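Lab channel / #folding
Pinned by the channel admin:
"Please post every new chain as: sequence first, then the structure tokens as a reply. Keep commentary short and put observations after the output so the thread stays searchable."

First post following the new format, from NK:
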Amino acid sequence: MSAHPALTMAAVCLIGGVTGYVRSRSMPSLIAGTGVGLIYGWSGYQIRSGGDYGYEGALAASVILFGASAPRAGKGPIPLTLTIASALAGAYYAKQVYDFRFAS
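Reply from TO:
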């Protein structure tokens, strides 16, 4: 189950980046959506295969996405949804990292 949020967020970011580009020819949307989506995808793969730093990568992608979407959260439903989703994914992966690193 741990890889599921990262893989879901990867799909959401990739689709969102492509959609942003198609609708408004926004290269920043395409680059950011693809970049963050690839980090989430890599993280999901690492988590699923038992590789190193998968949880940390997913947490980093969540922080990046939250930082980019939070200032725009009031501008519409898509930035608001991305802000909420990244906060939830970030909280989930922060707990996973904490449990792995510090909990016995």
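NK: The two ends are 21 Å apart (CA to CA).
TO: also worth noting, The chain has one domain: 3-101.
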